[in-house]
Amino acid sequence: MNNIISEIKVSNNIVLLCHNNPDGDAVGSTIAMYILLKRLGKEVDIVLDTLPKRFNFLKEYQDIKKESTKKYDTAVILDTGSIDRVNSAYLLDTVSKKLVIDHHMTNTMYGDVNLVEDYPACCEIIYNLIKEMNVSIDEDLALPLAVGLLTDTGGFAHKNVLPSTFTMAAELSSLVDLSDIYIKVLRTITINQFNIKKKALDNLELYNNNALAVSFITSEDMERYNVDEDECGILVGIPLEIDTVEVSIFLRKYPNQTRVSLRSGHIDVSRIASIFGGGGHVNAAGITTAMPYEDLKEKLIIEVGKSINEWNNCHR
């Protein structure tokens, strides 16, 4: 952390980037970092060409640029495990330093300085950074931090939650209404999301004695129901509500690629994702690939099936 702080102190003109199709942790950590750097007197921009609608209650949304022709001396990339996933990556070509702050242990360490720590959310690393730099946390900082923390812990329901996470949450709860934020980012869906949820459930298939659930939607479905990639995030973990399901595979079929979300109760899906060029966490991982859809689906079912069988053999 000290190396990142040293680089921040000597940087004056900074661009903040995160991953494509940003979730609440990417958005929250990037905006919290933006507020921090502004308070430190830095010139700073967030550049992100896609803005998920569900986070537009964050007032800093109005400051985000969809593109930029400016030259920056430093790029800070948040919540992004590999350089091929960086949104607006063209801005990396001209910077002198790339600083990476991430909580994915599959991170490829592509920065000049990397702060990669195993926390439930990137926002918890930003929270620690703010503390280390002796900057006080007020409501403006607490709100994006809470968005990221609640998103990547599933409202503190995921197995990745640490004691330190609750310490952070306790401080944030004295500044913002965590229940209200939880409802906004995790509980509320639009009628279009409800309709595509029905479609995804209609497509659901079960394998391995009902321990593996596989579902998909197509880009045509997304267009028909007028939802974007972020709005489909609600579909990823639904099959885990079935008492027999250990692993959920959710696929989004596009004309030239397929995006895959893996979720699990106990099984390490980051290992499975890495086989297909993806990555993530033990219980939540993702893949983006140009592999033909049917081949990908078949190979995923085989690999996940092996992991389920190994788990069952070890825990009989």
Characterization of the model:
By secondary structure, this protein is an alpha/beta fold. The termini are far apart. It has ten helices and eleven strands. The protein has helices at residues 2-10, 24-39, 122-132, 139-153, 163-173, 178-187, 191-202, 219-224, 269-275, 293-314, and strands at residues 13-17, 43-46, 74-78, 97-102, 113-116, 205-207, 212-218, 247-253, 258-264, 279-280, 284-289. It has two domains: 2-187, inorganic pyrophosphatase (n-terminal core) (Alpha-Beta Complex), CATH 3.90.1640; 191-314, Diaminopimelate Epimerase, Chain A, domain 1, CATH 3.10.310.30.
Q: Proportion of β residues?
A: 15-25%
Shape: globular
- Major sheet strand order: 6-7-8-9-11-10
By secondary-structure content and strand pairing, the structural class works out as alpha/beta
Helical content, roughly? 25-40%
> What's the structural domain tally?
2
Overall radius of gyration: 19 Å
Please summarize the sheet with the most strands. Answer: 6 strands, mixed
**Amino- and carboxy-terminal Cα gap:** 42 Å
The fourth-level CATH homologous superfamily of the largest domain is inorganic pyrophosphatase (n-terminal core)
Give the number of DSSP strands.
Answer: 11
Total number of helices: 10
Chain-averaged pLDDT: 96
The secondary-structure element order is: HEHEEEEHHHHHEEHEEHEEH
